[in-house]
Write a structure and sequence with these properties.
It holds the Pfam family DUF915. The protein is an alpha/beta fold. It is built from six helices and twelve strands.
Length: 287
């Protein structure tokens, strides 16, 4: 079930309601003919050591559903220089972002994201974007929003989808490390990492008009994690937001592992309805 959380009531443990998640049929071959009139570009941010393959199959599926077209690949060099192939300003663009130095820190990635969003607005006249971020990329996106989310110098981020993001991990990269556990209480994490505390202090710079869909994986194998990130660390995003609209979803199938969250049809459905609304349902209905 996709839960909509009232962030203003979290200190009392309140959840004011839930949006029922309807099981949709698998997409049919005819869905290639569908065209969703979505004018807002979607930007894909990979995790630690990510490559073109990280979001490549997801982007191809989104194209097959009719949710947009891959119109640009933007590679960000270590010095912040952008190498742009294609046209990111195409309506409904699916834009893949690649960090050339893909093992750098959250702080480096935050600065690169500012350069990216500034370029999209001032050189491509893109006023609004949506973002899908996996793993460490989601931490960098949130850190970026806590610094520049309300700035008029960059494209406004309307909606953010986070997949398996270690919001409250000491080390936010390097899959395969020991899973970090910091239990959640109704007031927030029992223990907060320095980065988590820093983002929380600056969360008021995140635009109140930015909506979030936070997706975590639980393998149901006793680890309470997706194999790399604990469910508690992923869901701690709740406590880093203010008045923003916030949904969360925990997936539990065999494709709930950290590296498979972006290859999961349940995740596709959730993202489709969140980003594209009722139109996206057609991509999963039998014709």
């Amino acid at each position: 079930m996709l839960k909509k959380i009232n962030l203003g009531l979290l200190t009392t443990g309140g959840i004011i309601g839930a949006l029922a998640w309807h099981k949709l049929a698998q997409p049919s071959a005819k869905n290639n003919e569908l065209t969703i009139k979505n004018q807002v570009p979607t930007v894909f941010i990979h995790g630690y050591a990510g490559t073109r393959l990280s979001a490549g199959l997801m982007i191809k599926r989104f194209e097959s559903y009719g949710w947009g077209q891959k119109s640009a690949v933007i590679t960000i060099k270590a010095d912040g220089t952008l190498a742009i192939r294609g046209d990111p300003a195409v309506p409904g663009a699916l834009i893949q972002v690649l960090f050339d130095s893909n093992r750098m820190s959250v702080m480096h990635q935050t600065n690169w994201l500012w350069r990216l969003m500034n370029c999209l607005k001032n050189h491509h006249s893109i006023e609004h974007v949506n973002v899908i971020a996996h793993s460490m990329g989601g931490v960098s996106v949130l850190n970026y929003l806590s610094k520049y989310g309300s700035s008029n110098q960059v494209s406004h981020v309307d909606k953010v989808v986070t997949l398996g993001v270690p919001f409250n991990d000491q080390e936010v990269g390097r899959d395969g490390k020991e899973i970090e556990y910091r239990p959640l209480t109704k007031y927030g994490p029992l223990d907060m990492t320095p980065l988590f505390k820093n983002i929380k202090r600056h969360r008021y710079f995140i635009s109140p008009e930015t909506a979030f869909l936070n997706i975590a994986g639980d393998l149901k194998n006793g680890t309470a994690s997706d194999g790399s990130v604990s469910v508690d660390s992923a869901l701690s995003l709740r406590y880093l937001l203010g008045t923003q609209t916030y949904y969360e979803l925990v997936v539990t199938a065999k494709h709930a592992s950290h590296s498979m969250l972006h290859e999961n049809k349940e995740v596709d459905r959730a993202i489709g309805l969140f980003l594209f609304g009722k139109q996206a349902k057609r991509a999963f209905e039998k014709n």
